[in-house]
Design goal:
By secondary structure, the protein is of the alpha/beta class. It has 8 helices and 11 strands. It is globular and about 55 Å long.
């Protein structure tokens, strides 16, 4: 089963190479690598040139943001399965794709996902649990059949960013999900999805799908805002 690995990037020179190395080091042979660069100006193109012979499809041009870039990659993909691994993220093992696809996957399953590791700049990492029933799914730790886009559409492109990946994922029936025990990827902390706006959008989506309640959203929103304010105060104190 051919797997299309899509990496989107924009001015991520410091993180891009380790993601590329992680992908091309995979022992699973039936794969293609697609990189969609948003027209970087920070030296990322030099990294891409260096690994050009390892990249099956490379597009470097201005785009309309994260989800526009993802849609470009999806439309170019020729694999039966798709996984999106953004610049800075790496697979947990060079054998992870082989371990997944060397086993028989039921035809009734179209979405494979796992827990994930979030790693920080200080080198520490923490395991985060995922759960489809609670709407907790992580994009870089999800591998799904490309045909799902024909049924449920592509990622919604809007500004500011919304949780288009979560909206797409939750449209897929839970019966098509298959959770595996081994985390698929290490994910770098500090992405767009960690922001307050995306968190609020995520909570709203879960209410729509009956996975959360409005009172709980208000409670989480207050906690998150207080946490962000506290971090800001601490940083201000230590700078003085």
């Amino acid at each position: 089963m051919k797997v299309s690995i899509i990496t989107i990037c924009y001015n991520c020179q410091e993180d891009l190479e380790k993601t590329i190395i992680s992908v091309i080091s995979q022992t699973y042979s039936d794969k293609e690598y697609i990189i969609i660069d948003g027209g970087s100006t920070d030296g990322s193109t030099e990294v891409l040139k260096h690994y050009n012979d390892k990249i099956d499809i490379l597009i470097s041009e201005p785009d309309n943001g994260i989800y526009d870039a993802l849609n470009k990659g999806v439309r170019l993909a020729t694999g039966e399965w798709i996984i999106c691994l953004n610049a800075g993220d790496i697979f947990t093992s060079e054998h992870i794709l082989s371990n997944i696809f060397n086993q028989e996957i039921p035809q009734s399953k179209s979405f494979i996902y796992s827990d994930f590791y979030l790693y920080h700049n200080d080198g520490t990492r923490e395991l985060h649990k995922t759960n489809r029933e609670k709407g907790e799914i992580h994009h870089q730790n999800a591998i799904y059949r490309k045909s799902l886009h024909q049924q449920y559409g592509y990622y919604i492109v809007t500004h500011p960013y919304i949780v288009s990946d979560l909206l797409f994922f939750l449209a897929i029936p839970a019966s098509q999900y298959l959770k595996i025990s081994t985390p698929i990827a290490f994910v770098k902390d500090g992405g767009v999805s960690n922001g307050l706006w995306c968190a609020e959008q995520s909570w709203a989506a879960k209410v729509i799908y009956g996975m959360d309640t409005i009172p709980m959203i208000f409670y989480r929103d207050i906690r998150l805002r207080f946490g962000l304010w506290r971090q800001k105060v601490i940083k201000t104190i230590f700078k003085q």
